[in-house]
Input
Amino acid sequence: MDPVDPVSRLVAIEEIKQLKARYFRLMDTRSWSEMASVFTRDAHLDTDGFTADGRDGIVAFLERVLRDARTVHHGHMPEITITSATTARGIWAMFDYVEFAAAGPHGASTGLFGYGHYEEEYVVEDDAWRIANLRLTRLRVDPLPGGQE
Output
């Protein structure tokens, strides 16, 4: 039985979709100060085994890892389950392109094309949906011609 009325459930799903779109845009535009707003204060991030905790720790980790990179992130086919009026879970198919500024052998860019899934938990904090737990698992990684960093 759905714990939330159908209209509220649909509104919550749309708000979570907007949250995830904002996450991707802020990542690719390097808007780190705004990126903090997509996470809860005590959020946890696990991306292919690299972890960070707390919104400030997550933003610092992303900024450090992606400082010299050009990225494109896409999320597709969301499966969002509203578990209460203030909690939800989601799975997103994903694609990312990560190109590092440092040149690889023969001047070729280093980086990757990645394909996989985001598994997330969401919580309403300060009257807005935020990501409380983010786990990124890549199912396939194709290195750029210069290799993968």
